[in-house]
Each structure stands twice: as structure tokens, then as C-alpha cells.
Amino acid sequence: MTSIFSFSNYKPYLKKTLIRGMRTELAAVLRCNVGFITQVLNGDSNFSLEHAIAVTDFLKLSGQEKDFFLLLVHREKAGTVKLRDYYQNQLEEILNQRAEIKSRIKSSSILDEKDYAIYYGQWSYTAIHMLLSITKYQSKSEVSKKLGLSLKEVTTVLEFLTKKNLVVEENGFYKTGPTRIHLNKSSPMILSHHANWRIEALKSLSNVQAEDLHYSSVLTMSKRDAKRIRDILLKAIEDVDIILGPSADEEIYAMNMDLFSFGPRD
């Protein structure tokens, strides 16, 4: 289903979402005729708030999606500029929250700033931490072979991870703990973290596998469309996190994603 958060008006959203007879089904729910729905979507009329809440139930919108849709309706129905601005500020607050990836991914951290510097300072710490979720790589020797690291390097990393309770050791085997770590984009370590994995991405180009994906492109577009693409990528990250939850731990992957303007910023 089309994301409500990609729209600044509820009418274009409904036009794109209500497909293949859904307008007729919605009319039955709202106890109106299809012509009324068409009149609202194509004209100056708006749904009542009672209709709006029924629409959110019909589309099975989640809590924040429902809030956003209702705010869009409120804003369109507002009779004064001040009231319209009030609802617009609430809409922008939701969008700003969603723009912060950390708010989409449940995470916790037991590291202080010094620990973060160690953990994100070298790619091997995050790689080993994640690799341990795969059963066949839970010994020092298997980690060493998989990542091409010396046993000494692996031991150093595992000692740190164990000391910080990020992994647990049982009879010489290591498993990931329940803590998930997400590096806030305002952290001073974010540059190092991004650089580490882009360097590894460049290394992987010398031995590309069939299932690998490497994509680079330089584009020109409007600022509005750039924002739309950014929203699509953010939604993709959120969808990936949903897939990861029940996904079996079979192999380790790295995923990088970039969209940025360059040259002097306006």
C-alpha cells in the first residue's frame, strides 16, 4: 500500500490507494454513494471527521499513519490560516520523527562514548558481533576463517564484546546478546562507521558474487523529487528491519545506502 507519509494532501493519497473497486467498498462503509467520494477527491469538499476515522479503519492504517491522515483532513478543513498552520506543524513533527531512523528501529545501548569509539572505530567489531548470530560461526576459529582475521584480532574483539555484555561465552562458543545498538546520526562516530563499511564495499568489488548488488549513479532532479526519493529509501530501511526480525541467521551481509547532493549547499 502507498505510504501516507509521502503525501502532503489526503486526496491524492486516496486516489492512488483506492483501486480496483475499493471506492465502492468504501462507499458502503461510509454509507454514501460512490459519487460523493469522487466529489470529495476531485473537488473542494472534504470528508467529515467521522468519515475520516472510518477511512483509516477501512485502510487498516497503523497508529501513526492514522494520526497523520487525520491531521491532513483537519488541515484541509481548517477555516483560518492560524489553525491550518497549527496542523501543518504537527504533520511536520511526525515527518521529522520518521526521518530519524533511530525512531523506527528498536535499539538499546550499554556503551559509553569511549566504548562507542572502539566498537565503531573498526569494521571488525560490528562484523564479529553480527556474525555470532549465525550458529556455525560462533567459535573463534570459524570467525577468523570467515572474516580473514587473525585469531589474535578476533580474541581482542571478543574480549571487548564479552566485557560489555554484547555477547555471551558458553564453553568456548560465543552468542550475541539481546542488546541492539544503533548509532545516532549526530554521533561523532558516524563518519568512521560509514567510512568503514564503504571501504569494505569497495573491497567487495574485486570479488563480486552473483547475489551482490552495487549501484552508483549521479542524478539531477528537483528538490521536491529528491525528498520523495529520500522518503522511499527511508521506508525501504524500515521494511528491511521488519524482514530482519523473523529472518533466519544464515549469512552475514553489509548494506550501504546513500543519497546526497554535493557542491555548495543552498
In words, what does this structure look like?
Helix 2 (22-30) packs across helix 3 (34-42) and helix 8 (123-131) packs across helix 10 (151-163). The protein has a two-stranded antiparallel sheet with strand order 1-2. The longest helix has 22 residues, at 223-244. 55% of the residues lie in helices and 3% in strands. With 266 residues, it is mainly alpha-helical.
Strand order of the largest sheet: 1-2
Q: Write down the secondary-structure element order.
A: HHHHHHHHHHEEHH
Largest sheet: 2 strands, antiparallel
Q: Find the CATH superfamily of the largest domain.
A: Winged helix-like DNA-binding domain superfamily/Winged helix DNA-binding domain
Secondary structure tally, helices: 12
Beta-strand content bin = under 5%
What spatial form do the alpha-carbon principal axes imply? elongated
Summarize model confidence as the mean pLDDT. Answer: 87
In the CATH classification, which architecture of the largest domain applies? Orthogonal Bundle
CATH class of the largest domain: Mainly Alpha
The CATH topology of the largest domain turns out to be Arc Repressor Mutant, subunit A
Helix content: 40-55%
Helix/strand/pairing category: mainly alpha
The overall number of domains is 2
Distance between the termini: 34 Å
Low-confidence stretches: none
Describe how the helices and strands are arranged.
Blueprint: H1 10-17, H2 22-30, H3 34-42, H4 49-58, H5 63-77, H6 81-99, H7 113-121, H8 123-131, H9 140-147, H10 151-163, E1 167-170, E2 173-176, H11 190-204, H12 223-244
Helix pairs in contact: 2-3, 4-5, 5-6, 8-10, 9-10
